[in-house]
């Protein structure tokens, strides 16, 4: 019996200057926007193999709030590994796990009056969302979840069912059910009162809306185009959930860990979610780690009812604890982020004024900022021009029409201004 013939990749090594196309899946995306091979990175700068430096206004899609290879966190990681400390431990008790839990409680939860228990659902943000959705359904006995237009919560089936982007949903291959989309804040440009549609459906016995288990929301929709919910809108949503016995889940995976100023992005609104999803920068170093924070009375999973092999990566506990001690023992980083965010906001407003015929829109909070262009083609050309000039910046939004800025929170003012100057040159090259 002969072995089946496996077709060779259509692209040969000779035709592929980066050396990846012939062997790697076509699903890769960021490497298409930034066609170079990266090799080293420190703080807010990454270097290609040929030594070309790039300022990073991407920060691992928000996973590197404290910069690349943060020196203080790197030393903690190196010491941890050199001492032969536990690396893989599933959910066994370890000293690193205890240190993180105690530090997180002392520096994050307790100062904010939060009594949530900490669940380690798996290595990534989608794991945190899946655990939150499962738990909400188990607690309430209901199936439906309310989500919002332009939301993004992850690529696994449960997380994808509460995601709005049609292209990403199309990759599921099956119907994505048990989720009902509602208009996000200002979806109708202020023409419709907040929650008028959702409230009517909840209160009308003939609406056909299944009684929801939960609402899942991002306070700032990063992948959706840096859409920012007003504090009063978030408070109205929290009140609506409370009145109808619906659990409130805040997905703080990209906007948490200080991205908008406070450690949690919902602090400004003064709300207390029932369940909070964290990942990305919680490890501090770009190592995989995710948390699902749960009000104690909702912590009803049976032992092992939700588990996974990588639900608590011990080296990530070590760097996470050090990141919390370094950046969250006082409010210095929070004040710095707000000030830098104001600098970016002012600059983007000046860009909008500079190109009135383009009808640009500046948006965002803290160091999560966006500049909406006329369409995705224009935004893509701007980011390509920025890359050619030494700046990494991506697009977001349903059609990729928003140039999205997520620099490390630790970026210097000089680096921030230098990056914005590169943006100006890129905009001039495209819009002029």
Automatic annotation (TrEMBL):
Q: Which CDD domains does this one have? A: OAT_like
> Which PANTHER family does the record match to this protein?
DIAMINOBUTYRATE--2-OXOGLUTARATE AMINOTRANSFERASE, DIAMINOBUTYRATE--2-OXOGLUTARATE TRANSAMINASE
**Top-level division of the source organism's lineage:** Bacteria
The protein's required cofactor(s) are namely: pyridoxal 5'-phosphate
Q: What class of enzyme is it?
A: transferase
What does the sequence similarity comment in the record state about its family? Belongs to the class-III pyridoxal-phosphate-dependent aminotransferase family.
Q: In which pathway does it act?
A: Amine and polyamine biosynthesis; ectoine biosynthesis; L-ectoine from L-aspartate 4-semialdehyde: step 1/3
Query: What PROSITE patterns would the database entry show?
Result: AA_TRANSFER_CLASS_3
What are the coiled-coil residue ranges? none
Annotated EC:
2.6.1.76
Classification via Pfam families: Aminotran_3 (PF00202)
Q: What name goes with this protein?
A: Diaminobutyrate--2-oxoglutarate transaminase
**Entry keyword set:** Aminotransferase, Pyridoxal phosphate, Transferase
